[in-house]
Design brief:
Distance between the termini: 29 Å
Number of strands: 0
Number of domains: 1
Structural class: mainly alpha
Shape: globular
Largest sheet: none
Strand content: under 5%
Order of helices and strands: HH
Number of helices: 2
Length: 73
Amino acid sequence: MQIPDASDPERRPFSVPAGSPGWITDELIERTIAVWQRFYAAPLTAEDAVEMLMRVSHLLGVLNPNAALLKGT
């Protein structure tokens, strides 16, 4: 699986939607879509990726509310 080079702004097909948490980056959105797109018939959007990431963040918060990585989410 090829992950797009997020360091080149001209090659960034996705960007963080307005209102997203600060920990979500263009690169994280691109990686999320790169991993999950094969399981979906319709093309995933940046908004889809943010929703996936937020749901995983909430799940991790339930499983381990004291996790250092979850502070501020």
